[in-house]
Design goal:
Helix content is 49%, strand content 17%. It is α/β, with parallel strands linked by helices. It has two domains: 30-112 and 213-335, Periplasmic binding protein-like II (D-Maltodextrin-Binding Protein, domain 2), CATH 3.40.190; 116-210, D-Maltodextrin-Binding Protein, domain 2. The strands form two sheets. The chain has a five-stranded mixed sheet with strand order 2-1-3-10-4, sandwiched between helices. Strands 7-6-8-5-9 form a five-stranded mixed sheet, sandwiched between helices. The radius of gyration is 23 Å and the shape is globular.
């Protein structure tokens, strides 16, 4: 009898444990993570949509999004350990790694230099910019790189022929500086480009004038995090590619989120931003090795280390590769048909 009771008790405990594991998994505390984003621009929309759609929670994370003005500031926050992951603009994480910074690109959201150069009505030609000022978010940021790139292409010397000044606060803030006459222009993306056209400013250069491959909007992580919290990064990446799916296929929801984060009420402006960027974001956001190579070539003009550097040393392809090879990403789009 005692043996039977013990057997029944053991069976009951086993059943209870199995039930707890199967039905109580939601009781586990979600892993907290802080994710940075670095520009008030349509290219930054994917983390916003991932957050608003509840996809971080779906994949076991409690995510807090914080705004860090400019790629340089976001990269500094990564290296200091203030945040583990950030969506950054441009070559800032590449330049930091060249200097020994522990930061690694793990995904590419927009992998071309997607900018337009907006200028005052009196600027009709590139040479009209001589002696004038152009605004960027911060030195070393994506907007800084794009501004210098187009000036050099036109034979103008940045900081000598054309002054470049920092105006933090996002593209709308720099557009306001153009309106007030503080600067003669800025590089910008939708929806700011749409607003600029309505205000009758000139567009002196379009995205195709800047070149092709470039890490316009990479996702970067503090390198120690990739080793110490690999499962958290895997969960983040699952949420991110889920967010990309929502972004590319749920336009009405995505536009509402863009309008909220950018504080824009004009549907036409939001539509412009969505249509421009959603087609550029890849379903499989591998780190852009060609774009990193382009950034290294630019950095190599001043830093000899960049000339011999390999793009592969600045990126970790494994997180997107795992999701790709497992069929996780393909399944999202098959299930949505």
């Amino acid at each position: 009898m005692v043996t039977q009771c013990r057997a029944l008790l053991a069976t009951a405990l086993t059943i209870s444990l199995v039930f707890t594991l199967l039905s109580g998994s939601s009781g586990f505390a979600a892993e907290k993570i802080v994710v940075g984003w670095s520009a008030i621009a349509g290219a930054q929309a994917v983390p916003w949509i991932t957050k608003e759609a509840g996809l971080f929670e779906k994949h076991g994370l409690e995510a807090t999004l914080i705004y860090l003005d400019g790629g340089s500031k976001a990269t500094q926050a990564l290296m200091s350990g203030d945040i583990p992951i950030a969506q950054i603009g441009g070559a800032a994480p590449i330049a930091a790694r060249l200097r020994g910074g522990e930061v690694t690109i793990i995904a590419g959201i927009v992998n071309v230099l997607a900018y337009s150069l907006i200028v005052s009505p009196d600027v009709k030609r590139p040479e009209d910019l001589k002696g004038k000022k152009l605004a960027v978010s911060r030195f070393g940021s994506n907007s800084d790189y794009a501004t210098r790139k187009i000036l050099v292409k036109w034979g103008l010397r940045p900081d000598r022929d054309v002054a470049i000044i920092q105006i933090p606060g996002g593209q709308p803030t720099r557009l306001a500086a153009l309106q007030s006459g503080q600067v003669a222009g800025l590089v910008a993306q939708p929806p700011v480009t749409n607003l600029a056209r309505k205000l009758r400013f000139n567009i002196l250069a379009e995205p195709e004038d800047f070149g092709s491959a470039y890490p316009n909007t990479p996702i970067a992580a503090a390198t120690p995090v990739l080793k110490e919290k690999r499962e958290v990064v895997r969960s983040f990446m699952r949420a991110l590619v889920d967010g990309i799916y929502v972004y590319k296929t749920k336009s009405d929801f995505s536009k509402r989120v863009i309008a909220k984060y950018m504080r824009i009420k004009d549907p036409e402006v939001v539509d412009d931003s969505y249509e421009f960027f959603s087609r550029l974001v890849p379903a499989k956001p591998y780190p852009p090795l060609d774009g990193i190579k382009e950034a290294l070539a630019e950095l190599g003009e001043k830093d000899p280390k960049a000339r011999s550097a390999r793009p592969e040393d600045f990126a970790d392809m494994s997180f997107v590769k795992e999701l790709d090879e497992s069929g996780f990403i393909d399944q999202l789009y098959k299930a949505g048909r």
